[in-house]
């Protein structure tokens, strides 16, 4: 008989030693994962030793405490079901020690029995510790229903008529968390309870968000804000609150919370990302670009430092994988970089925001470098959007380089696209508008059209670069190549613009784009001819270009100039008047970025023409 | 004839393998090997020994090395993916490990599991991304994890493909996946800046771009190809998986390239060209071979394309690997090298390329279940490492001379000639084989025959050894017994001996055996020199249970001289062992001298008693007619005229000789049951006259009149007398056998015969005579005195004969005859 108390003492000491090692490690500057593993295996061994002899009430407290510690340590090394099995075992042994035999393995029933048997005994703190473990496990598996049942069982003594609600149950939960100083624990039950509480509430909120019930979600998050929580978690709560506000159409509130999130936790990337999205929504390009830029820098910083989480129970573990990605989703660096670069260019050339083009170019060059480097990273998009096709990225980069007057670089980048698409260009691409294409087939057709378009656009950009380099001959060659590529796409029906295709807007959009590119190429070549004095050829090309893209003001102007030079002044003046009467030509915003070439084109001085024309008209 | 010859070295031998989960990875001189059990062996090829054994918790399904080759990833049957650093001696030479000759056992702890998922099927590692493939509820999902990552691994992405439920392939998913796990291969585009990783295959940029799209090619991203057990080959770009679709939406990154419609065993690249391997090769389990090649864009600007060529090789294909030009694959029965040729579209049409492609050579290595390599060793030869089903680690040295594969095919005329030569040589070999077979057959037959002969001899020798026992009535397996009979032929009676050879042994006497009967007269008359004769009777076959009867005459040169000893023996001629047409002259020469073995069977004696004639029906020709007078007498006798013979028999009274035997002795010896003295006498007489018919009585009276072989009548008589004073303990019953005849020769012969028989009888069972009779001294004394007086007379006669000359021979013979008669008339009693 004297052996047993002695054993209890020895085992308690062993347990305390393990915890002491852990606490020292936790306090240390460099928390070590190996220490944790060692603590886990040691405490597991201890638990196995304790379980080696029949359960008895003298050792119940010790056994439950050791179980609690072991479960906490094992979080990173075992999966939830394994821990749960062990937990069930512990509960059965506890019941066994108290003399009541329960053979059912259903955890809910088991808990009912345990709470009934031990609910009013001195073992309540230990029982509640294990209850926290059970709560944690179910939270990890997103089984909020079972958590609710469990907490209701615990609260059962107080009869209150409030509606059954996880939040209220959690709030009203009274667990006895007194610590026994003789038996140390890896994490105080109170701390764990607080963490579980806030995480449970957050989970509720996220679930509501997923069901698009944003006001309910907001309530949950607001409750969570009032709870004590670690910084990172608070940042995430703020972000989620902001997201709910954004969804509820209150972007300024949203921004406010995003700011709070970043203030609380500087590494809260999702807040930055979300605020960029809000800024875009609000039409504040500078702020948007800044936010994206911050995000990009932060992402780069974060990827440098090792992300080892020292704390025993981290929220990342508590939230299941899916929830965590929902909470802290951030696109991959490449995606951010592209968004940033693309936004810069779009704002500059479509919305005419005064942004330095060189930033955009640098972003694009960074992006291309990251795509080409050996230490590639996986390009992932967190939020269901997809990364643009790589040739498009190249063309955009070429476009940016062209705009930044780095013509030679632009030539090189476009050459890449040309060589890579070369093999895919068919001799002729005949599209039949009446043919019904389904799914994959239409995708193939669209893909083919895309390839032709990319090749044509690459030639077009190269021609532009050559022209800018004053190499008119090379420019004409490339314009011709672009035209040759683009005219390969051919539609059977003449009236395709009126008719609706088997598939659609995507196809219409492609065709419009192809036509626009064709028009630009023809116009460009016409301009080259004009410059070289080949007026007839210029006239033909410009006329064709106008057929392709009617209403392009610049082209009309040049046509007027050509006509003027050809001494066809009547026609020239007629054109002139026509151009001026239709002042608001429809903007080709729908065109891809890399085809947004002309609006600011000042290659040709129109003031001279204007003077001439006005003079002529007045003279008449 | 041009079969690829390769040499195979046995590097090591392990225990049996499980064919579907044997994996070999080569890393420099080290070989990582698993046989589907719990161990991963690290085998040093140079030292030819296992340096390290890594013991896992469950049996192994798949193995892979991390990009930097410092970590080993292993998927075990318990669903755990283990990541363990490779032992240090692999990367850097660790002193104490290298010195120890024993292999180091290293148990992989269970906390090295980085991922646990029971539905994991396969995985691969590329670009520091761990790609796993798992099957859960008929959905294949590709999961991408960071590598090396924290634990639990940080999941980067997940793509899913629904399993195919086509009728042709649809076994249950579990069965399929167990029998053939999916194959994950990572293929890099070959380029100037390509990462020099030898763990993954490369593909030339052109085909790579055509197959996997512009995006992968622009980013230089590797592509993960997956051969699913349902035969589909899926692919996705590893680094840019989520790209915008044509309509701007996100599309599934996983694309199905082709379906082999059978479980995929291998995916790789082959046929190296200027810019890297030019073919994508996939091999299905049932032998379907898919070769993907690019077709160059023609000058007209037609779109470049790739072609899927499907071929068939003989399945099942267990494993495969490729080098620059060849695909090596193992069916269970053989390892094949399949020449894959570079055919650019300009020079070869499709059909030609197909023909050229399928020149498969057998390497003659069977039961290979896993392959590694091929790699070129410093001397320039190409080597494959293979693991056979029985657990042998083999190094297959492939023949050098890769240009051999480029040798153009033979022109048809030469080919015809070659085929002819080949057929001729086949015929030659067939003939040789046939003759060898024939010879072997004959040798076997001879040996069998010889064996039988020796068996028979051992039986006969046993007989011989136990002759006594045999005489007691036990039957020999092979026996020969003879009976003398009178037979009449051409009016002339002659005494013949009929011998019966009985084979009651289990074996058959084949041809080559001869029954030899030697007849040897015992009496030495003046004309009897060299009168013994041998008769041999070769026979073809004597089956077990059969009998052979032969009859030989006992007279020689017209004279019958009794008694005759007959030796029967079985002789085997060795030449019979060799069939007459084929035995080589050398052997038969050797056999001429002592070409036979002889074994005695039995020895018989034919005496006067045997030659007696009971019936007296002489055919008259029997009478001897040695001389003219004899002939005349015989003639006269046949005419019924009795003439007075000049012989002594007719002149004088019949001579009587007598043998006395104690009747009690005879009774016990002959096992006589008769109680009355008359019956007893008849039995004894019967025994003497016709011993072969012991049961029935051929003689019905104690007196029998018979004829001797020379035609004289002889009276044989047996009677019982009581000698009152002979024995001390009372009167003694004595059987008196009396022979009366006028012919001295007959009397002598018969007397001798009777004594011999008695002698044989008594000798054979002398032991049994227990009690001795107490003879009366008086009678014994008288008998001795009588014999002594006779002896004295004999001596006198001899002396006189010695002194006298030829003049007195007649007198002498008379005296001797008288002594003889006296001696015979009152003989001693045989007790």
From TrEMBL, chain A:
GO cellular component, alphabetical, reads:
Fanconi anaemia nuclear complex
Q: Name one GO biological process term.
A: interstrand cross-link repair
Protein origin, superkingdom: Eukaryota
Q: What is the protein named?
A: FA complementation group G
InterPro entries per UniProt: FANCG, TPR-like_helical_dom_sf, TPR_rpt
Which species expresses this protein natively? Cyprinus carpio carpio
PANTHER family under this entry? FANCONI ANEMIA GROUP G PROTEIN (PTHR15254:SF2), FANCONI ANEMIA GROUP G PROTEIN FAMILY MEMBER (PTHR15254)
Q: Which Pfam families match?
A: TPR_8
From TrEMBL, chain B:
Highest taxon in the source lineage: Eukaryota
Q: Supply the SUPFAM superfamilies for this chain.
A: WD40 repeat-like (SSF50978)
One Gene Ontology term from the biological process aspect of the record: interstrand cross-link repair
For this record, the Gene Ontology CC terms, alphabetical, are: Fanconi anaemia nuclear complex; nucleoplasm
Question: Where would you find the membrane-spanning parts of this chain?
Answer: none
Instruction: Give any Pfam family that matches.
Output: FANCAA
Protein name in UniProt: FA core complex associated protein 100
Give the source species: Cyprinus carpio carpio
